[in-house]
Each structure stands twice: as C-alpha cells, then as structure tokens.
C-alpha cells in the first residue's frame, strides 16, 4: 500500500491477517488501507482477516492493473523505464503533490500544487522540456 503504483499477478492475494493472531496491522495497515479503499471495505478485510483476490483488489482501486504472473515483473520494469526518462526533480515534485492530496483539504492542496508548479517552471529541466517540445525533439534532462 505504500507503493506509488501496484501491479498484481493474476493469482495475487491481498489481506490484513493480523486479527487471526489477536493483534492488529501495526505498521500502518489500518491507516493506509482505509485511505486506499474506504472504511467499509477496509473494515471487512481487517476484521475478517480474510484476503481478497487480485481481481477484487483491482475493483477496489488497490492495484493499478493485473497481469499474467509470467509478465508482471516485465510490465513493472517497463513502467519504471517509461517513468525514468522524466526529470527527477519533476518526478519528486509530482509525487509530493499527489501524496499531499490525500492529507490536505482541497484548498490547501491546490495552494501547495500551485507553489510546486511555479517552482518547477524555474528549473533547467522545465526549460529544456519546453524547448524540446517546441523543437519536436526528445528532451535531455540534467536533473536540475
């Protein structure tokens, strides 16, 4: 649940089985699961101790997509490669903005996003990205 993107193999199972041991998910499971799939679904999984299928996890929005087991690693690496071509400062900034959306009221989140957006416009990578777009070429980011 702490991943930015979750790909699942078609036979994957997801759960919070700690209740079966007379304890609770103590490493953030109660806090993160409710934010990911809502209170009712989280309570059902946590209170029952039962796991859910990859299909159900997808329906709940817990995973981004499901792939055949033999392809899931390849698909994840492919996504990582597509992400890695972007500017590192831009990636860090967009992650901060998206992650704050879960924690902040909308008006505060919009203010934060605006500040991050304006700051990103001042980076060398943004200037390079815009120039590359206008010149119809691939950008050469320097992570600055």
Automatic annotation (TrEMBL):
GO terms for biological process: fatty acid beta-oxidation. This is enoyl-CoA hydratase. Its EC number is 4.2.1.17. Pfam families: ECH_1. It comes from the Eukaryota. InterPro entries: ClpP/crotonase-like_dom_sf, Enoyl-CoA_hydra/iso, Enoyl-CoA_hydra_C. GO terms for cellular component: mitochondrion. The lineage of its organism: Eukaryota, Metazoa, Spiralia, Lophotrochozoa, Platyhelminthes. It is an enzyme of class 4 (lyase). GO terms for molecular function: enoyl-CoA hydratase activity. Keywords: Lyase. Belongs to the enoyl-CoA hydratase/isomerase family.
